[in-house]
Protein: Epoxyqueuosine reductase
Amino acid sequence: MLPSSLSNPDDLAQLAVDIKAWATEFGFAEARIVDPDLGQHKDQFNNWLDKGYHAGMDYLANHGDMRFYPEQLHPGTRRVISLRMHYLPQSVETVKRLHTKEKAYIARYALGRDYHKLIRKRLTQLAKKIEAKIGDHGYRAFVDSAPILERQIAEQAGMGWIGKNTLLLTPKAGSWFLLGEIFTNLPLPVDGATKTRHCGSCDACLTQCPTDAFVEPWVLDASKCISYLTIEHKGPIPEELRDKMGNRIFGCDDCQLVCPWTKFAKYTEEEDFQPRHNLDSSDLVELFQWNEETFLKNTEGSPIRRTGYENWQRNIAVALGNAKTTDDILDALKKALKHSSPLVQEHIEWALKQHNH
Structure:
């Protein structure tokens, strides 16, 4: 039931304006409103699953058709408020760090506090601000935490377009931002959809992917994606892909870094997104020497926790194998070989072979 304070369309229109203003107060770069039509993506998504491009992420095949029908996630949903937040600190190096092979490269969204916690808190604050203004409106907030086609929702809200690298792009900020949604029962006026995808003939993200993970424009084979391999994948990393991973030990930003729209990136001032424990400039050897207790301590409240200590060691062993040969690297690998798990030992042995040891 619509709150009595919203008795006419002008009231709803003003509330939409207020919501967008409040969103900026809570640190969001942009908020847009949509009544999403997601059924059109069903066949394409299911075809992607049928080809096994989701690799070991079985959860993507769960929940039936729920991701195509928002009202199944939150009964009574009439609109989705799509929001984005910048996460790249200005002080953090990107391309230069990739070319410094003795240093670890961690996807820039993961250097600070887990974005799920930060953005969910801000979404809830915004939703409660709406509630304080007009009363109970029925809502549910999401941050990459449910079967949601968030990029498609954002595109339909006019926030940007889905690029050939499958990321949401906007001429205002490239793709260095994170998305969140509020499903609401309010019949708010909607924003216009993005009608054109402005990638043109550019294929930099496709041709410069280190592992050739893009089957074609807009189609990613996750089994070859460094982000998947270093975060989600359990077990050995395919040997033919190891030397292509360079110094990337958690995630990969390459398809963003080569995108021409990146030059329009906006930086974050959020303290929670600032690097912790010097993770933006740490030596591989230093991180490899963390024991599990240190790993758990230094990744508390961090998205890096997701990969787990064993896979963290596995990833760094591969990166050490791709680095320039030094005594420090050889000593670290040989020392760890004696007490590591069989999985990590396999990757250490591969790394030592790369250094002719």
In short: The mean pLDDT is 95. Residues 204-267+274-354 form one domain.
